[in-house]
Design brief:
With 318 residues, this protein is of the alpha+beta class. The protein folds into three domains: 121 residues, Orthogonal Bundle (Helix Hairpins), CATH 1.10.287.110; 78 residues, Urease metallochaperone UreE, N-terminal domain (HSP40/DNAj peptide-binding domain), CATH 2.60.260.20; 89 residues, HSP40/DNAj peptide-binding domain (Sandwich), CATH 2.60.260.20. Helix content is 24%, strand content 24%. The strands form four sheets. It has a four-stranded mixed β-sheet. A three-stranded mixed β-sheet has the order 1-5-4. Strands 2-3 form a two-stranded antiparallel ribbon. A hairpin with a 5-residue loop joins strand 2 and strand 3. Helix 2 runs antiparallel to helix 3. It is elongated and about 105 Å long. The N and C termini lie far apart (84 Å).
Length: 318
């Protein structure tokens, strides 16, 4: 039989505390429970985890196992116990094994402790202490206007519950959450006690919302700043004009300076996302040329070409 490194199975160091062992067990039990896990070989890993936890959580079994491990045995090595059958001596279990009980734990476990729990035994059901529920992380898409005004959203997310018998079940939870004003991309909002339910009346975990800001035309978000690519006619750019531009708070009147060019920016102070200080909104001008679809339009363009000396490629030296 192969020697089993129970610390390695649980991802622990040999000096791990009892609290660290419990935390590792709860985390891995949720990960590998066959009822909810999508991992390969979840059932065998779950069984192996239960065996490791059964040993390491018990001070007497752990001390007995550590004594053997410190003799130089390592994972995968062919293990040969002293003598035949279960090891005996002070502090060692010597009870006879009921053949019907075989299968709950491995031969390696049996060779050391000389007994196994009865058929149908679940090592996880024996962890009767209250434990905190798992934290849940949920990504939520937020539009610019949602951040500007604040909103309430209904979300659904999976949680894992552990029953009193140690069974893990996956459920879907529905929750109305408030999105406060001024949230920005990547921000995390903690909702205390809104995560996975606790075990045996333990406290619930927390829900962490990660904000994913999504652009929605015409608004583009950069931190708390908002930008709008704003089309203007050639005569508005050349002569200047009073125009209405969209903002998250509603349209406002803005003056386009004369001789504006594509790419020029107009800053609307404090018109971005709320905050301390609030962001700004930037109007990025984009001159849009009317198509010469009619003879009148063609004549006007021809007249401009003849009467307005202008070389748009002058800075290129051509």
């Amino acid at each position: 039989m192969e020697f089993k490194d129970y610390y390695q199975i649980m991802g622990l160091k040999p000096e791990a505390t009892s609290d660290e062992i419990k935390r590792a067990y709860r985390k891995l039990a949720r990960k590998y429970h066959p009822d909810v896990s999508k991992e390969a070989d979840a059932e065998s890993k779950f069984k192996e985890l239960g065996e490791a936890y059964e040993v390491l959580k018990d001070p007497q079994k752990r001390a007995q196992y550590d004594g053997i491990r410190q003799q130089g045995w390592h994972a995968g090595q062919q293990y040969r116990p002293d003598g035949q059958g279960a090891r005996k001596g002070p502090g060692f279990y010597t009870e006879e094994i009921n053949p019907e009980d075989l299968g709950a734990f491995s031969d390696f476990f049996t060779s050391i402790f000389g007994q196994q729990p009865g058929r149908g035994y679940s090592p996880f059901a024996r962890e009767a202490a209250a434990s905190r529920g798992e934290d849940v992380h949920y990504s939520i898409d937020v539009r610019p206007e949602d951040s500007y005004h604040g909103t309430t959203r209904t979300i659904e997310f999976p949680v894992v519950e552990m029953t009193d018998t140690g069974q893990l079940v996956r459920k879907t939870r529905t929750l109305n959450v408030k999105i406060p004003k001024g949230v920005v991309n990547g921000q995390h909002i903690r909702l205390k006690g809104q995560g996975g339910p606790g075990y045996r009346k333990g406290p619930s975990g927390d829900l962490y919302l990660e904000i994913k800001m999504v652009d929605r035309e015409p608004f583009h978000i950069d931190g708390r700043d908002v930008s709008v690519i704003f089309p203007v006619a050639p005569w508005e750019a050349a002569l200047g004009a009073q125009v209405r531009v969209p903002t998250l708070g509603g349209p406002i009147e803005v003056k386009i300076p004369p001789n504006s060019q594509t790419g020029n920016k107009l800053r609307l102070k404090g018109r971005g996302l709320p905050g301390n200080p609030p962001g700004n909104q930037y109007i990025i001008l984009q001159i849009v040329t009317p198509p010469a679809m009619s003879q009148t339009a063609k004549d006007l363009y021809q007249e401009m070409a003849e009467k307005i000396p202008f070389n748009p490629r002058e800075r290129l030296g051509v």
